[in-house]
Amino acid sequence: MGIIKPTNKSVESFKGLHLYHTGFSNCAMRVRLALEEKGLAWESHPIDLQKGEQLTKEYIGINPNAVVPTLVDDGVVIIDSADIIDYIDQHYTSGSLRPQSKQDESQMYQWMYLARDNHLSIKTYMYANLGFSDKMKRSQQEMGDYRKNQTFDKALLEFHERFNSNEGFSEQDVVNATQVIDDCFKKMDERLKDHKWLAGEEYSLADIAWVPQLIVLKAAKFPFENYQHLEQWKEAIMQRPSFKRAILDWLPQMGK
């Protein structure tokens, strides 16, 4: 996915780094973490998901998936958070966020893509367990517009069709999503039993890709007590200065 040509040409005149995002979005969190970890200046463009600002023609013209985040770098538009953080680290080389060895770098990408490929399972669990999920449901007109305008990601469209249907997610849908998440966290916990970080010996894009999942799933009361090594890993990340700037400053309630 990565770099795309937007139909909303207004962003092509942007100078510097611009991020379209929202506070409580795991995908947006990982991009903010990468930007802050590398000490990059960026301009914020908040998108209110509950107001449906991601569904406007103006925004879909920037990101055809109608999701956050979107990064614009001197007019270059990058979508998909895994691709965005990889782009950031490759184009702004100071303070590398990748392991030195090719083997560890390959492992880093495996963790990043695992986080990306399972994002619909996490969304299913979140939407099924957060009390405000009904507020995220779209009207028939909104779904009609979404169907018409979002032609880029069929899996995401199917997810929203299911969520906004009269039946919503079935109990089995939630069970299946929970199993996928559990498998991922078991794999992470096994790695972290003998290592401080997910890939190599330093904090990397692999860790940045995964820690936001713990943050949003905690809000949905996911049972993290089953993974004894994840907590120490998360705490180490939360102590980094970038965490405050990227997460707490946008979600101040987390610091309470």
From TrEMBL:
Keywords: Transferase. SUPFAM superfamilies: GST C-terminal domain-like, Thioredoxin-like. It comes from the Bacteria. The lineage of its organism: Bacteria, Pseudomonadati, Pseudomonadota, Gammaproteobacteria, Vibrionales. GO terms for molecular function: transferase activity. Residues 134-256 form the GST C-terminal domain. It holds the Pfam family GST_N_3. This is Glutathione S-transferase. Residues 15-96 form the GST N-terminal domain. InterPro entries: Glutathione-S-Trfase_C-like, Glutathione-S-Trfase_C_sf, Glutathione_S-Trfase, Glutathione_S-Trfase_N, GST_C, Thioredoxin-like_sf.
